[in-house]
Amino acid sequence: MVSEANDARGRGRPRDPKVDEAILGATVAVLRERGWSGTTIEEVAARAGVGKTSIYRRYPSKVTLVADAATRDRESVFPSFDTGSAAGDLMAFVLGSLRRLLGSVWQDVLPGVLAEAAEDPDVREVVKEAWSWRRASIGAIVARGIERGEIQPGTDPEHVLDMVDGPLLFRLMVTKAPLDYGFADQLVDRVMRAVGSHWR
Amino acid sequence: MVSEANDARGRGRPRDPKVDEAILGATVAVLRERGWSGTTIEEVAARAGVGKTSIYRRYPSKVTLVADAATRDRESVFPSFDTGSAAGDLMAFVLGSLRRLLGSVWQDVLPGVLAEAAEDPDVREVVKEAWSWRRASIGAIVARGIERGEIQPGTDPEHVLDMVDGPLLFRLMVTKAPLDYGFADQLVDRVMRAVGSHWR
Amino acid sequence: MVSEANDARGRGRPRDPKVDEAILGATVAVLRERGWSGTTIEEVAARAGVGKTSIYRRYPSKVTLVADAATRDRESVFPSFDTGSAAGDLMAFVLGSLRRLLGSVWQDVLPGVLAEAAEDPDVREVVKEAWSWRRASIGAIVARGIERGEIQPGTDPEHVLDMVDGPLLFRLMVTKAPLDYGFADQLVDRVMRAVGSHWR
Amino acid sequence: MVSEANDARGRGRPRDPKVDEAILGATVAVLRERGWSGTTIEEVAARAGVGKTSIYRRYPSKVTLVADAATRDRESVFPSFDTGSAAGDLMAFVLGSLRRLLGSVWQDVLPGVLAEAAEDPDVREVVKEAWSWRRASIGAIVARGIERGEIQPGTDPEHVLDMVDGPLLFRLMVTKAPLDYGFADQLVDRVMRAVGSHWR
DNA sequence: GTCTAAGCGAGACGGTACGTCCAGTCTTCCG
DNA sequence: CGGAAGACTGGACGTACCGTCTCGCTTAGAC
Fold it and tell me: Could you tell me the pTM of the whole model?
């Protein structure tokens, strides 16, 4: 997400990668102890031992900074491996998601980021980008499932994403219901009932 | 949510109901044209021709004000009538939800409110409260379905809520995918496959 | 110079005179220990235990704040009393001026204020205002001198002001030559030679 | 004032005189359209098509840059020629001063430079240096006048400088009264009355 | 003909202060 | 005493420059 091809190799002093690191590190630290709304650019800058300018030069807004920091906090992406069955793949994906989510700052910042995204199209773009790997993973799982005959041909991966991430988000942001193994199990069961060829 | 019972009938000048109205009206107007984060108590007060004090006397925070205003914007609650079948009841519920949501300020306001709720337990309480009628409606639908033998006994209404409001929220806040008749149809189909006794 | 008729007696909380005092006091203190350019609104606010807003509400700029503070620092105006002779009056005026100037913050801030005045017409107005009592004093002295026959009729007080404040300013800002009794003596002598009827 | 002797003739690339020119030209331009305080090193650099470093390599501060630029803007120094009488010499000097002053950026820049000088001893040195030719000119005029018997022996040229540059500065910075022929005439008259042997 | 120190434009760096905006509270007067 | 007005403290915002520091390059005298 760092983007803007750094190999512009334009003239002038190049950006110091240590500063990049310091900013992201400080951002994660502040997020952890102050939460989304308690996080200010000012404090991040102070904590990173960096001028505010150096942050604004890299990120146009708090939300882009935080999104980048959260993305890097843990390597949020994990391999979508082939377990041999669609249900297995899904289970692995859901459990992996939960594990990463619960351990990272994403859990704290997601509501704030999504709120911002609702108002700013640029942020929306960032969010979509950040979600694309999930879309891709589900797509792969569904494709393999169809090949194996476990999932109905013509199944739209987007709907599967609705079924997986929808309840997850709902619990995270509204009901605060637990995101545990039982939840994952039910999720997989529902998906397989909805799009499976001969589930149970 | 209109604040505490006004019939304290204490001494002194009673609250002016015109002020209540002016505040709520101005809040909705400002929300519509500035969005959640662009809405400030200051502007609402100015627009309503009211002192900031008169707002703070009624609402402890922006989020409670907005929640009240949004709730009244359209009567967001609607009766959950009995259509004769579980699938019909669900369809009615989902379509009603969509109709109310898409026409009201809730749609603009929800992400912001949920973000606030993630950090402030008081707000979380408000949100839970605001969601309770949906929980109740789903509960009633499920109960009738079980009675009729359409829905598996022991079905947890909470899971059904996950399946209905989860994707809805996900589309609203993340993918911005359409919330239309087709979506509603799929939603109902999935729910019935997941918890129906002999769907299709 | 506080101006803006406070007796608008409009509704709303009236300005707190303690805040006025705190601001001016802090300004003088900061000026003394940091000098003109080292004085920041930020520090004045902090020192006064006052929000920056409360300063900006009263003064549109640093220079107006400082001008007001300096004016009040010592009652810079002093009575122009009648000593019986034009030379005596002038001497009293010059010595009084020196005494007040050297003891107040004016000495430190004058260059900065005048620099600002050179660029901002509003500030120029403030300066003119602040100088008007000197113009008036000289005017009175000249008038009395003409009456007594000591000063040539038709003498323009403005020129006398040139002769008095010009060298004073020049020494203060350029040569840093001493502003002492000898200087005052010479000043008076020159003025009397230039506009006196029969000096020496 | 062009900075230190360039004939160090050390190794390395010599300074590009085009850069010198570009900097000074841009400085004058920016001074004219933005005034003293609106002039920033950053803009001068941009306007000159030059790196900030190239300016800082030549001038340690804004004030030295500006002083140099202003000095070169017009050849501010002019010969103090012998007109045959002290009054004539003085008149020539004053009129020359006015002519140079009013046409150059000095007029805009002087207040700012003097304000800086009030706080920074290094700048004060620069100012004193810049004023020395005036001191010298007046000295020469006074010396010739004494020789001719027109000016009282023992007259301190410094006082004459007070009487000439004082009112000039005062009008320039405080009263904004006109600096015209009449003013010059009065100035000369006053000086001659104050230090002349038998004026009129 | 290399070497090499200095100059060059560009622009990132840590900082500081700016003036603005809101939050939520407090204080006045009017009805 | 309720309500409107608006001043209060406080703190983050995003901007603008400061003066310093790399960068990769050019220039031209010294070797």
Answer: 0.86
